[in-house]
Amino acid sequence: LSRLRRTEPSVRSFIHVADAAAEREAEELDRRIASGEKDAVGPLAGVLVGIKDNLCTANMPSTGGSRILDGYRPAYDATAVRRLRDAGAIVVGKTNLDEFGMGSTTEGSAFQVTTNPWDDSRVPGGSSGGSASAVSARQCVVSLGSDTGGSVRQPASFCGVVGLKPTYGRVSRFGLMAYASSLDVVGCLGSSVFDTATILSVVAGHDKMDSTSSSQDVPDYVSELVSLDLLESKPLNGLRIGIIQETLGEGVDTGVISSIKDAASHLEHLGSVVEEVSLPSFSLGLPAYYILASSEASSNLSRYDGIRYGRQVSADDLNEIYGESRADGLGHEVKMRILMGTYALSAGYYDAYYKRAQQVRTLVKESFKGALERYDILISPAAPSAAYKIGEKINDPLAMYAGDIMTVFNTFSFVDVDLCLL
Ligand code: GLN
Protein backbone atom coordinates (compact mmCIF):
# COMPACT_ATOMS: atom_id res chain seq x y z
CA LEU A 1 0.00 0.00 0.00
CA SER A 2 2.81 2.41 0.74
CA ARG A 3 4.27 1.69 -2.67
CA LEU A 4 0.91 2.41 -4.23
CA ARG A 5 0.68 5.74 -2.40
CA ARG A 6 4.20 6.68 -3.41
CA THR A 7 3.92 5.83 -7.10
CA GLU A 8 0.34 6.83 -7.83
CA PRO A 9 0.96 10.58 -8.29
CA SER A 10 3.16 9.86 -11.30
CA VAL A 11 1.58 6.68 -12.74
CA ARG A 12 -2.11 7.53 -12.12
CA SER A 13 -3.35 3.95 -12.59
CA PHE A 14 -6.44 4.41 -10.44
CA ILE A 15 -9.60 6.46 -10.87
CA HIS A 16 -10.49 5.53 -7.31
CA VAL A 17 -8.02 4.38 -4.65
CA ALA A 18 -9.52 2.45 -1.75
CA ASP A 19 -6.32 2.30 0.31
CA ALA A 20 -7.89 3.12 3.68
CA ALA A 21 -10.58 0.44 3.24
CA ALA A 22 -7.93 -2.02 2.05
CA GLU A 23 -5.86 -1.33 5.14
CA ARG A 24 -8.84 -2.01 7.39
CA GLU A 25 -9.60 -5.27 5.56
CA ALA A 26 -5.98 -6.36 5.89
CA GLU A 27 -5.99 -5.65 9.62
CA GLU A 28 -9.20 -7.62 10.02
CA LEU A 29 -7.59 -10.51 8.17
CA ASP A 30 -4.55 -10.39 10.45
CA ARG A 31 -6.84 -10.44 13.44
CA ARG A 32 -8.67 -13.53 12.18
CA ILE A 33 -5.46 -15.35 11.43
CA ALA A 34 -4.00 -14.42 14.83
CA SER A 35 -7.09 -15.74 16.59
CA GLY A 36 -6.63 -19.13 14.97
CA GLU A 37 -9.13 -18.74 12.13
CA LYS A 38 -6.45 -19.60 9.59
CA ASP A 39 -8.68 -22.02 7.71
CA ALA A 40 -11.41 -19.43 7.40
CA VAL A 41 -9.33 -17.32 5.04
CA GLY A 42 -9.39 -18.07 1.31
CA PRO A 43 -6.62 -18.96 -1.14
CA LEU A 44 -6.07 -15.29 -2.11
CA ALA A 45 -6.11 -14.00 1.47
CA GLY A 46 -4.65 -10.52 1.60
CA VAL A 47 -3.73 -10.34 -2.09
CA LEU A 48 -4.23 -6.78 -3.33
CA VAL A 49 -6.16 -6.62 -6.60
CA GLY A 50 -6.96 -3.73 -8.94
CA ILE A 51 -10.26 -3.79 -10.80
CA LYS A 52 -10.87 -2.09 -14.15
CA ASP A 53 -13.46 0.59 -13.61
CA ASN A 54 -15.93 -0.91 -16.09
CA LEU A 55 -16.52 -3.76 -13.61
CA CYS A 56 -19.11 -2.99 -10.95
CA THR A 57 -17.98 -2.89 -7.34
CA ALA A 58 -20.46 -2.59 -4.48
CA ASN A 59 -20.40 0.79 -2.79
CA MET A 60 -17.36 1.95 -4.70
CA PRO A 61 -17.48 4.29 -7.69
CA SER A 62 -17.75 2.52 -11.05
CA THR A 63 -17.50 5.00 -13.88
CA GLY A 64 -16.41 3.04 -16.95
CA GLY A 65 -14.03 5.95 -17.50
CA SER A 66 -17.02 8.11 -18.47
CA ARG A 67 -18.41 11.38 -17.12
CA ILE A 68 -21.89 10.03 -17.72
CA LEU A 69 -21.37 7.62 -14.79
CA ASP A 70 -19.68 10.14 -12.51
CA GLY A 71 -21.05 9.50 -9.03
CA TYR A 72 -22.51 6.07 -9.85
CA ARG A 73 -22.06 3.52 -7.05
CA PRO A 74 -23.48 0.12 -7.95
CA ALA A 75 -25.28 -1.88 -5.29
CA TYR A 76 -23.50 -5.10 -6.24
CA ASP A 77 -20.17 -6.62 -7.23
CA ALA A 78 -19.53 -8.06 -10.69
CA THR A 79 -19.33 -11.85 -10.36
CA ALA A 80 -15.57 -11.91 -11.12
CA VAL A 81 -14.99 -9.33 -8.37
CA ARG A 82 -17.22 -11.21 -5.94
CA ARG A 83 -15.27 -14.41 -6.55
CA LEU A 84 -11.95 -12.69 -5.89
CA ARG A 85 -13.27 -11.21 -2.64
CA ASP A 86 -14.72 -14.57 -1.57
CA ALA A 87 -11.23 -16.04 -2.03
CA GLY A 88 -9.86 -13.39 0.36
CA ALA A 89 -8.49 -10.83 -2.12
CA ILE A 90 -8.64 -7.16 -1.18
CA VAL A 91 -9.81 -4.65 -3.78
CA VAL A 92 -7.39 -1.75 -3.62
CA GLY A 93 -9.02 0.46 -6.22
CA LYS A 94 -10.60 0.96 -9.61
CA THR A 95 -8.22 1.23 -12.52
CA ASN A 96 -8.26 3.75 -15.33
CA LEU A 97 -9.43 2.88 -18.84
CA ASP A 98 -10.44 4.38 -22.15
CA GLU A 99 -14.09 5.38 -21.84
CA PHE A 100 -16.21 2.21 -21.88
CA GLY A 101 -13.21 0.26 -23.18
CA MET A 102 -13.00 2.13 -26.49
CA GLY A 103 -9.38 2.92 -27.19
CA SER A 104 -5.83 1.61 -27.08
CA THR A 105 -3.92 4.06 -24.85
CA THR A 106 -6.08 4.96 -21.81
CA GLU A 107 -5.89 8.59 -23.02
CA GLY A 108 -9.60 8.22 -23.78
CA SER A 109 -10.50 8.26 -20.08
CA ALA A 110 -12.69 11.19 -19.07
CA PHE A 111 -10.68 11.57 -15.86
CA GLN A 112 -6.91 11.31 -16.26
CA VAL A 113 -4.03 10.07 -18.35
CA THR A 114 -2.17 7.03 -17.00
CA THR A 115 1.55 6.80 -17.73
CA ASN A 116 3.67 3.78 -18.54
CA PRO A 117 5.67 2.86 -15.40
CA TRP A 118 8.75 2.12 -17.54
CA ASP A 119 8.78 5.60 -19.12
CA ASP A 120 6.33 8.27 -18.05
CA SER A 121 6.32 9.96 -21.45
CA ARG A 122 4.71 6.84 -22.95
CA VAL A 123 1.21 5.35 -22.94
CA PRO A 124 0.49 2.20 -20.92
CA GLY A 125 -1.69 0.89 -23.77
CA GLY A 126 -5.40 0.34 -23.44
CA SER A 127 -8.12 0.10 -22.81
CA SER A 128 -7.14 -1.73 -19.58
CA GLY A 129 -4.11 0.58 -19.25
CA GLY A 130 -4.62 1.24 -15.53
CA SER A 131 -4.86 -2.49 -14.76
CA ALA A 132 -1.58 -3.12 -16.62
CA SER A 133 0.33 -0.14 -15.19
CA ALA A 134 -0.83 -0.97 -11.64
CA VAL A 135 0.62 -4.49 -11.85
CA SER A 136 3.72 -3.27 -13.64
CA ALA A 137 4.40 -0.58 -11.00
CA ARG A 138 3.62 -3.19 -8.30
CA GLN A 139 0.81 -1.12 -6.90
CA CYS A 140 -1.20 -4.33 -6.65
CA VAL A 141 -0.37 -8.00 -7.22
CA VAL A 142 -2.88 -8.84 -9.92
CA SER A 143 -5.73 -7.07 -11.66
CA LEU A 144 -8.83 -7.64 -13.74
CA GLY A 145 -9.33 -6.04 -17.11
CA SER A 146 -11.68 -6.59 -20.02
CA ASP A 147 -10.78 -7.50 -23.58
CA THR A 148 -13.02 -6.96 -26.59
CA GLY A 149 -10.40 -6.57 -29.29
CA GLY A 150 -7.11 -6.53 -27.38
CA SER A 151 -7.65 -4.46 -24.25
CA VAL A 152 -5.94 -6.89 -21.89
CA ARG A 153 -3.27 -8.26 -24.23
CA GLN A 154 -1.99 -5.00 -25.71
CA PRO A 155 -1.57 -3.01 -22.44
CA ALA A 156 0.05 -6.06 -20.82
CA SER A 157 2.54 -6.07 -23.67
CA PHE A 158 3.16 -2.30 -23.42
CA CYS A 159 3.76 -2.52 -19.65
CA GLY A 160 5.77 -5.75 -19.63
CA VAL A 161 3.31 -7.89 -17.64
CA VAL A 162 1.30 -11.02 -18.45
CA GLY A 163 -2.20 -10.45 -19.86
CA LEU A 164 -4.59 -13.31 -20.40
CA LYS A 165 -7.72 -13.08 -22.51
CA PRO A 166 -9.73 -16.18 -21.62
CA THR A 167 -12.02 -17.85 -24.14
CA TYR A 168 -15.34 -16.09 -24.59
CA GLY A 169 -17.76 -17.34 -21.91
CA ARG A 170 -15.05 -18.69 -19.59
CA VAL A 171 -15.54 -15.86 -17.07
CA SER A 172 -18.92 -14.41 -16.16
CA ARG A 173 -19.61 -10.91 -17.45
CA PHE A 174 -22.30 -10.17 -14.91
CA GLY A 175 -21.46 -6.65 -13.73
CA LEU A 176 -19.20 -5.81 -16.69
CA MET A 177 -20.34 -2.70 -18.56
CA ALA A 178 -21.09 -3.98 -22.05
CA TYR A 179 -19.17 -2.62 -25.03
CA ALA A 180 -19.54 -5.25 -27.78
CA SER A 181 -21.40 -8.15 -26.20
CA SER A 182 -20.46 -10.82 -28.71
CA LEU A 183 -16.74 -10.18 -28.05
CA ASP A 184 -16.38 -8.84 -24.49
CA VAL A 185 -14.51 -10.99 -21.97
CA VAL A 186 -13.14 -10.37 -18.48
CA GLY A 187 -9.37 -10.95 -18.46
CA CYS A 188 -6.56 -11.28 -15.92
CA LEU A 189 -3.25 -9.44 -15.55
CA GLY A 190 -0.33 -10.40 -13.35
CA SER A 191 3.43 -10.22 -13.26
CA SER A 192 3.84 -13.92 -14.04
CA VAL A 193 1.97 -16.68 -15.86
CA PHE A 194 1.58 -18.38 -12.49
CA ASP A 195 -0.20 -15.37 -10.91
CA THR A 196 -2.45 -14.95 -13.92
CA ALA A 197 -3.38 -18.64 -13.94
CA THR A 198 -4.10 -18.44 -10.21
CA ILE A 199 -6.67 -15.69 -10.55
CA LEU A 200 -8.21 -17.26 -13.63
CA SER A 201 -8.87 -20.41 -11.57
CA VAL A 202 -10.74 -18.27 -9.06
CA VAL A 203 -12.84 -16.15 -11.43
CA ALA A 204 -13.63 -18.73 -14.16
CA GLY A 205 -16.74 -20.87 -14.29
CA HIS A 206 -20.45 -20.83 -14.92
CA ASP A 207 -22.60 -18.15 -13.34
CA LYS A 208 -26.37 -18.26 -13.36
CA MET A 209 -26.40 -14.45 -13.68
CA ASP A 210 -24.75 -14.64 -17.13
CA SER A 211 -26.40 -17.00 -19.59
CA THR A 212 -23.43 -16.69 -21.97
CA SER A 213 -21.02 -18.08 -19.37
CA SER A 214 -19.81 -21.57 -20.18
CA SER A 215 -20.82 -24.54 -18.06
CA GLN A 216 -17.71 -26.51 -18.99
CA ASP A 217 -15.65 -27.57 -15.98
CA VAL A 218 -12.82 -25.26 -14.96
CA PRO A 219 -9.49 -27.08 -15.27
CA ASP A 220 -6.87 -26.64 -12.57
CA TYR A 221 -4.74 -24.15 -14.49
CA VAL A 222 -2.14 -23.87 -11.76
CA SER A 223 -1.34 -27.54 -11.30
CA GLU A 224 -1.21 -28.02 -15.09
CA LEU A 225 1.40 -25.29 -15.15
CA VAL A 226 3.44 -26.68 -12.31
CA SER A 227 3.46 -30.15 -13.86
CA LEU A 228 5.53 -28.85 -16.79
CA ASP A 229 9.07 -29.78 -15.87
CA LEU A 230 11.24 -26.95 -17.16
CA LEU A 231 14.35 -28.59 -15.76
CA GLU A 232 14.02 -31.41 -18.24
CA SER A 233 16.21 -30.73 -21.27
CA LYS A 234 13.37 -30.82 -23.84
CA PRO A 235 10.15 -30.18 -21.88
CA LEU A 236 8.23 -29.09 -24.99
CA ASN A 237 9.09 -32.17 -27.03
CA GLY A 238 6.35 -32.96 -29.56
CA LEU A 239 4.64 -29.57 -29.36
CA ARG A 240 3.83 -28.04 -32.75
CA ILE A 241 3.86 -24.23 -32.87
CA GLY A 242 2.85 -21.99 -35.78
CA ILE A 243 4.01 -18.38 -36.07
CA ILE A 244 1.41 -16.45 -38.03
CA GLN A 245 3.43 -15.22 -41.00
CA GLU A 246 1.30 -12.14 -41.73
CA THR A 247 1.87 -10.79 -38.21
CA LEU A 248 5.56 -10.34 -38.97
CA GLY A 249 5.03 -8.39 -42.18
CA GLU A 250 4.88 -4.79 -43.31
CA GLY A 251 4.22 -2.10 -40.69
CA VAL A 252 5.57 -4.19 -37.82
CA ASP A 253 8.59 -2.76 -35.98
CA THR A 254 11.83 -4.64 -36.51
CA GLY A 255 12.31 -4.88 -32.74
CA VAL A 256 8.95 -6.65 -32.41
CA ILE A 257 9.84 -9.09 -35.18
CA SER A 258 13.20 -9.94 -33.66
CA SER A 259 11.64 -10.48 -30.19
CA ILE A 260 9.18 -12.95 -31.65
CA LYS A 261 11.93 -14.72 -33.56
CA ASP A 262 14.06 -14.94 -30.40
CA ALA A 263 11.10 -16.41 -28.51
CA ALA A 264 10.57 -18.89 -31.34
CA SER A 265 14.13 -20.13 -31.23
CA HIS A 266 13.91 -20.47 -27.47
CA LEU A 267 10.78 -22.59 -27.89
CA GLU A 268 12.59 -24.72 -30.46
CA HIS A 269 15.47 -25.12 -28.08
CA LEU A 270 13.00 -26.46 -25.51
CA GLY A 271 11.98 -29.18 -27.96
CA SER A 272 9.00 -27.88 -29.93
CA VAL A 273 8.73 -27.67 -33.70
CA VAL A 274 8.19 -24.07 -34.86
CA GLU A 275 7.05 -23.20 -38.38
CA GLU A 276 5.59 -20.18 -40.12
CA VAL A 277 1.93 -20.54 -41.07
CA SER A 278 0.04 -18.26 -43.43
CA LEU A 279 -3.44 -16.96 -42.50
CA PRO A 280 -4.41 -14.88 -45.55
CA SER A 281 -7.54 -13.40 -43.91
CA PHE A 282 -5.32 -11.55 -41.40
CA SER A 283 -5.77 -8.06 -42.83
CA LEU A 284 -9.57 -8.43 -42.96
CA GLY A 285 -9.87 -8.66 -39.19
CA LEU A 286 -9.39 -4.97 -38.48
CA PRO A 287 -12.12 -3.45 -40.69
CA ALA A 288 -14.59 -6.18 -39.74
CA TYR A 289 -13.89 -5.68 -36.04
CA TYR A 290 -14.49 -1.93 -36.15
CA ILE A 291 -17.83 -2.38 -37.95
CA LEU A 292 -19.04 -5.08 -35.55
CA ALA A 293 -17.76 -3.52 -32.32
CA SER A 294 -19.17 -0.07 -33.19
CA SER A 295 -22.52 -1.57 -34.18
CA GLU A 296 -22.88 -3.42 -30.91
CA ALA A 297 -21.65 -0.38 -28.97
CA SER A 298 -24.27 1.85 -30.57
CA SER A 299 -26.94 -0.47 -29.21
CA ASN A 300 -25.36 -1.19 -25.81
CA LEU A 301 -24.67 2.44 -24.96
CA SER A 302 -28.29 3.49 -25.45
CA ARG A 303 -28.79 2.57 -21.78
CA TYR A 304 -26.90 5.71 -20.72
CA ASP A 305 -29.84 8.02 -21.03
CA GLY A 306 -29.33 10.32 -18.04
CA ILE A 307 -32.15 8.65 -16.13
CA ARG A 308 -31.18 5.17 -15.09
CA TYR A 309 -27.61 5.77 -13.98
CA GLY A 310 -25.12 8.42 -12.95
CA ARG A 311 -25.32 12.13 -13.61
CA GLN A 312 -28.63 13.91 -13.86
CA VAL A 313 -29.22 17.05 -15.89
CA SER A 314 -32.27 19.18 -15.35
CA ALA A 315 -34.27 19.78 -18.50
CA ASP A 316 -37.87 20.42 -19.56
CA ASP A 317 -38.67 17.21 -21.36
CA LEU A 318 -37.45 13.68 -21.79
CA ASN A 319 -35.74 14.20 -25.14
CA GLU A 320 -33.85 17.12 -23.73
CA ILE A 321 -32.68 14.98 -20.78
CA TYR A 322 -31.46 12.28 -23.17
CA GLY A 323 -29.82 14.75 -25.50
CA GLU A 324 -28.09 16.88 -22.90
CA SER A 325 -26.92 13.99 -20.71
CA ARG A 326 -25.36 12.25 -23.68
CA ALA A 327 -23.94 15.41 -25.24
CA ASP A 328 -22.20 16.36 -21.98
CA GLY A 329 -21.56 12.94 -20.52
CA LEU A 330 -20.06 11.00 -23.44
CA GLY A 331 -16.64 11.70 -24.91
CA HIS A 332 -15.64 12.27 -28.51
CA GLU A 333 -14.44 8.74 -29.35
CA VAL A 334 -17.55 7.14 -27.88
CA LYS A 335 -19.83 9.47 -29.83
CA MET A 336 -17.90 8.73 -33.01
CA ARG A 337 -18.35 4.98 -32.52
CA ILE A 338 -22.06 5.34 -31.78
CA LEU A 339 -22.43 7.27 -35.04
CA MET A 340 -20.39 4.72 -37.02
CA GLY A 341 -22.33 1.83 -35.52
CA THR A 342 -25.71 3.42 -36.08
CA TYR A 343 -24.76 4.08 -39.69
CA ALA A 344 -23.56 0.51 -40.26
CA LEU A 345 -26.83 -0.87 -38.89
CA SER A 346 -29.10 1.50 -40.85
CA ALA A 347 -31.56 0.16 -43.40
CA GLY A 348 -29.87 0.24 -46.79
CA TYR A 349 -26.36 -0.07 -45.39
CA TYR A 350 -26.80 -3.18 -43.29
CA ASP A 351 -25.98 -5.65 -46.08
CA ALA A 352 -23.00 -3.66 -47.31
CA TYR A 353 -21.31 -3.27 -43.94
CA TYR A 354 -22.69 -5.23 -41.06
CA LYS A 355 -23.57 -8.41 -42.92
CA ARG A 356 -20.25 -8.46 -44.75
CA ALA A 357 -18.37 -7.94 -41.51
CA GLN A 358 -20.19 -10.95 -40.07
CA GLN A 359 -19.13 -13.01 -43.10
CA VAL A 360 -15.52 -11.94 -42.60
CA ARG A 361 -15.73 -12.93 -38.98
CA THR A 362 -16.75 -16.45 -40.00
CA LEU A 363 -13.95 -16.58 -42.56
CA VAL A 364 -11.35 -15.60 -39.96
CA LYS A 365 -12.70 -18.14 -37.50
CA GLU A 366 -12.52 -20.90 -40.08
CA SER A 367 -8.93 -20.06 -41.01
CA PHE A 368 -7.95 -20.32 -37.34
CA LYS A 369 -9.72 -23.64 -37.03
CA GLY A 370 -7.81 -24.96 -40.05
CA ALA A 371 -4.45 -23.85 -38.66
CA LEU A 372 -5.20 -25.32 -35.26
CA GLU A 373 -5.76 -28.72 -36.83
CA ARG A 374 -2.07 -28.62 -37.77
CA TYR A 375 -0.58 -26.79 -34.76
CA ASP A 376 -1.08 -27.01 -31.01
CA ILE A 377 -0.30 -23.34 -30.51
CA LEU A 378 -0.24 -20.24 -32.72
CA ILE A 379 1.88 -17.26 -31.79
CA SER A 380 1.99 -13.64 -32.88
CA PRO A 381 3.01 -10.29 -31.39
CA ALA A 382 0.37 -8.50 -29.28
CA ALA A 383 0.93 -5.22 -31.14
CA PRO A 384 2.96 -3.96 -34.11
CA SER A 385 5.07 -1.71 -31.88
CA ALA A 386 6.10 -1.22 -28.28
CA ALA A 387 4.55 1.60 -26.18
CA TYR A 388 4.55 4.93 -28.03
CA LYS A 389 4.51 8.51 -26.77
CA ILE A 390 1.52 10.04 -25.00
CA GLY A 391 -0.31 12.24 -27.52
CA GLU A 392 1.34 10.60 -30.54
CA LYS A 393 -1.82 9.02 -31.98
CA ILE A 394 -4.58 10.77 -30.09
CA ASN A 395 -5.58 12.93 -33.07
CA ASP A 396 -5.29 10.18 -35.61
CA PRO A 397 -7.95 7.55 -34.87
CA LEU A 398 -7.09 5.46 -37.92
CA ALA A 399 -3.46 5.11 -36.83
CA MET A 400 -4.68 4.16 -33.36
CA TYR A 401 -7.11 1.56 -34.78
CA ALA A 402 -4.33 0.13 -36.98
CA GLY A 403 -2.36 -0.68 -33.82
CA ASP A 404 -5.07 -3.22 -32.92
CA ILE A 405 -4.39 -5.39 -35.97
CA MET A 406 -2.83 -8.29 -34.05
CA THR A 407 -5.46 -8.65 -31.36
CA VAL A 408 -8.72 -7.95 -33.20
CA PHE A 409 -7.88 -10.66 -35.71
CA ASN A 410 -7.69 -13.46 -33.19
CA THR A 411 -10.51 -12.06 -31.09
CA PHE A 412 -12.76 -13.61 -33.75
CA SER A 413 -11.11 -16.98 -33.57
CA PHE A 414 -13.05 -18.81 -30.93
CA VAL A 415 -16.34 -17.02 -30.75
CA ASP A 416 -19.05 -19.59 -31.07
CA VAL A 417 -22.15 -17.54 -30.48
CA ASP A 418 -24.07 -15.59 -33.03
CA LEU A 419 -24.17 -11.89 -32.46
CA CYS A 420 -26.58 -10.85 -29.76
CA LEU A 421 -27.62 -7.22 -29.74
CA LEU A 422 -29.10 -6.75 -26.32
N1 GLN B 1 -8.63 -0.92 -28.98
C1 GLN B 1 -9.79 -1.68 -29.32
C2 GLN B 1 -10.99 -0.76 -29.43
O1 GLN B 1 -10.82 0.39 -29.26
C3 GLN B 1 -10.04 -2.77 -28.34
C4 GLN B 1 -10.69 -2.31 -27.10
C5 GLN B 1 -11.07 -3.41 -26.15
O2 GLN B 1 -10.64 -4.57 -26.28
N2 GLN B 1 -11.93 -3.06 -25.20
O3 GLN B 1 -12.09 -1.16 -29.69
TrEMBL record:
GO CC list: chloroplast stroma; glutamyl-tRNA(Gln) amidotransferase complex; mitochondrion
Keyword Endoplasmic reticulum assigned: no
Key word Translocase present: no
Compartments where located: Mitochondrion; Plastid, Chloroplast stroma
Reaction(s) the record says it catalyses: L-glutamyl-tRNA(Gln) + L-glutamine + ATP + H2O = L-glutaminyl-tRNA(Gln) + L-glutamate + ADP + phosphate + H(+)
PANTHER family to which the protein is assigned, alphabetical: GLUTAMYL-TRNA(GLN) AMIDOTRANSFERASE SUBUNIT A, MITOCHONDRIAL, TRANSAMIDASE
Identification of the protein by name: Glutamyl-tRNA(Gln) amidotransferase subunit A, chloroplastic/mitochondrial
Species the sequence originates in: Panicum virgatum (Blackwell switchgrass)
Gene of this entry: GATA
